[in-house]
UniProtKB/TrEMBL annotation:
Name of the protein this chain belongs to: Uncharacterized protein
Originating species: Trapa natans
TM region positions: none
Binding site for ATP: K119
Gene Ontology molecular function: any one: protein serine/threonine kinase activity
Amino acid sequence: MRCFHFTGVERREDEEVEASRSWKVSWALSFGAASSNFDTRRSELESESREFDDSVAFYAMLTQRRTNDLRVFSFSELKSATRGFSRVLVIGEGGFGCVFRGVVSSVDGSNSKMDVAVKQLNRNGFQARYPFPSLRRSVDCG
Ligand SMILES: Nc1ncnc2c1ncn2[C@@H]1O[C@H](COP(=O)(O)OP(=O)(O)OP(=O)(O)O)[C@@H](O)[C@H]1O
């Protein structure tokens, strides 16, 4: 998972189209993080991406290392870092999913370890779909 600037979206006069597209991006990112099988995740993500006019740019955004210094982790790396998303490592909970404490190797060649917080987005999270707080469902972090 990573943070990024989303610059590939064209400005359109129809705000509803734009809002709908943004939601699909969020859904796809959430699904990618929540799935436990990389191949299943990738194939379903690819088919879902066909809905996008700019599906190539979208897929590149998810898979390529950009020119910034953000480090891209594979799902298996994050799974390993959190010992399989162990419930004993849950350190918090947000509307979109659980946050786990994890440990990853540094990339500076020093062989040192780095503590990280890993958020596993929950595809069943409803925070973004319901505007009313009373209708939000909490996630189950165990
Ligand atoms: N980097 C971090 N270090 C330590 N604890 C963290 C870190 N990030 C998140 N947490 C813990 O996880 C909790 C939930 O964080 P999260 O970012 O999911 O909150 P949120 O912004 O409310 O979530 P959401 O965007 O899903 O509504 C935090 O309140 C905190 O206890």
